[in-house]
Amino acid sequence: MGESKSNKKHHVSLRLNILFLAVFLLFSALILRLGLVQIVNGEEYEEELKHVSNQTALIDAPRGIFTDRYGYPVVENSLELSVTYTNPGNQSGGDMIEIAEEVAKFITVDTENLRDRDKREYYYTKLEPQERRALIEDIEYSDEDETTEYQRMIDAISDEMIANYSEEEEQVIAIFSHMLRGTNGSPQRIKQGLTDEEAPKLAEHLDRLPNINIQRDSVREYVYGDTLKNIYGRVGSIQTESVDDYLARGYMRSDLVGNSFLEKQYEDVLRGQKAEVVRTNTREGSGPMEQLIEETPGSRGNDLVLSIDMEYQQILDDIVERQVLQNQGIFVQDASSYAVVMDPKTGDILAMSGFQKERGEEGFSNPTGVFQNAYMPGSVVKGASVLAGLEEGVITPSTVIHDRRLEFSDGTRKASLSTTIGHVALREAMARSSNVYMFEIAMRMADFNYSPRASIFSHTKANEVLDQVKYYFHQFGLGGETGIDLPNEATGFASEGVQESGNLLDFMIGQYDTYTTLQLAQYVSTIANDGVRMRPRLVTEIVEANPNGDGAGAVVRTNTPEVLNTVDMSQSDIAAVQDSFRAVVTNTNGTARGVPNNLNIAAKTGTAQSFLNGRPTNNLSFVGYAPYDDPEIAFAIMTPDTNVPPSGTPGNKISENIAIDLTEAYYDLQDERDGPEQVDSVVEEVDLFEEQ
């Protein structure tokens, strides 16, 4: 019995040993096989894996175009060739420099805006690893310093180290810098606009320039030359302060975007849908490489339909330029004038123009001055001052005020511009531009009864009344943004209080705060439109690009006319001011009596005393609308910094003459149109270093 149990134990142990041996042999075989795969055949499998790859490239699509209100294209896309570099993701900086050196043999790039940072990155890349470490090995950094080692090395490269690069080396640095800015797998422009000599030379050598390609590109073309070019805006590299915002919206660092004015304002709709090219490279073992290319077509961005009448715009530009050049002698220093015409019922900007000529230099178009340059306007704001008095109940349209010289106990003297006018009611006070009428409104609002050489009202009372008057001014857009669909609109100087009590009187006649020409145009448009203030607009519609390339596509969005506010004033009071503006032109002693009656204009003139470099100057302004009984246009003109004429001498009429000419031109176009004058177009030059 005992022997039987012993035999059984022996058999079990034997079977377990055999099982353990079998498992051991299986594991040994598995380990051996894995070792064989990894050690002996690893390179073969790795080689096969290396040759199965996907690469996706996004190709920019053209931006949407601009047309004027009558369908004339004003901004289009011009096709050109660009040289690009596509980083595969595993190319070293040294290899990239070698490619840049080769590319530099065939093209010339702009190095004017090459940064010291670009030179330092190039210098760093050329160093050996031990040379890089040597840059900072003797520098001690605090524990709180979180600067990366790479940045420390870049910062340690001195100005002297990068000071003596030759022009040829700077060409290489510029190309290398553009290559660095790209995103892996997507083309990065090295140069946009290859010349007829560069393109074929480069194309001939592409086979030895890895990851360098020539692609069709587009650049902005301004159909009517420099006309409104500044308003359209610029397209360029993403500006440094905006990089994070654009990346969050799905852009790449290498993208070109609208950086100013309309291009920036409508970037989201102008941007095209990029084409997507997926290249799949496959090679099995040592066999041939096979490439499959799948392309998803892109599409042009949406188009903008502008409120601008290009034919009228060209005429207005000619009017303003001619008047400035003919009157150069009236200016204290630089000569300039600004004008804007809008539809008071819709807010459409029909034309906006500015011309500036510095002494000894060629003149140039400066339409952005319409909404970016602010000046004291003078008496053109008296419509708002009168409405403040009417609404506060201190005057009525029939109130008669004695226009005479005012003198206060501190020696301050105030009067109308040229002479004492005598007793006048509202209509004649506006027609003859009575300053004292406006002073009286302010004094009555301050509960101040004037007597010769009396002490003026207190500083506190002046600020209290100023706030009241500004409440009415702001309803016309004076002192705030007009709301135009453009970035970087100026709002002028808006005082927060008076420095002395008499400044309240100055404010009432446009001699304290400053306003842009566009603000003045919105103000007079609101008067013309019975107190309804419209948002100025430059874009009326956004439409799809027509795939057939003929005519406009489907409307994506309409920028409908927008009422910003209706002034808190009675229609009868607004009508009284409208009538007084008409009297400025029709009265025999009106300040704009030289305006032809057949133009049917209502208007207000203005002359503001200012200073330029210590010299006294006059700002000559003019606002108005036409036809008076059913306004179709409202306009404002500002001609700053003219000489002060001798006492008793009539002032220059340059702004009034511009108003006459632009109104006549508008009427003429209602009778007959020939379309915009054809001129040489201008193609935009894109600076790939811009603001980076």
Automatic annotation (TrEMBL):
The keyword Membrane applies. Transmembrane segments: none annotated. The keyword Transmembrane applies. GO terms for cellular component: plasma membrane. One of its GO terms (molecular function) is peptidoglycan L,D-transpeptidase activity. Signal peptide: none annotated. One of its GO terms (biological process) is cell wall organization. It is found in: Cell membrane; Membrane. Gene3D superfamilies: DD-peptidase/beta-lactamase superfamily, Penicillin-binding protein 2a (Domain 2), Penicillin-binding protein, N-terminal non-catalytic domain, head sub-domain. Residues 338-661 form the Penicillin-binding protein transpeptidase domain. Residues 59-279 form the Penicillin-binding protein dimerisation domain. Pathway: Cell wall biogenesis; peptidoglycan biosynthesis. It comes from the Bacteria. Its main location: membrane. It is an enzyme of class 3 (hydrolase). Keywords: Cell membrane, Cell shape, Cell wall biogenesis/degradation, Membrane, Peptidoglycan synthesis, Transmembrane, Transmembrane helix. It is a single-pass membrane protein. Its EC number is 3.4.16.4. Pfam families: PBP_dimer, Transpeptidase. It catalyses: Preferential cleavage: (Ac)2-L-Lys-D-Ala-|-D-Ala. Also transpeptidation of peptidyl-alanyl moieties that are N-acyl substituents of D-alanine. PANTHER family: PEPTIDOGLYCAN D,D-TRANSPEPTIDASE, PEPTIDOGLYCAN D,D-TRANSPEPTIDASE MRDA. Belongs to the transpeptidase family. This is serine-type D-Ala-D-Ala carboxypeptidase.
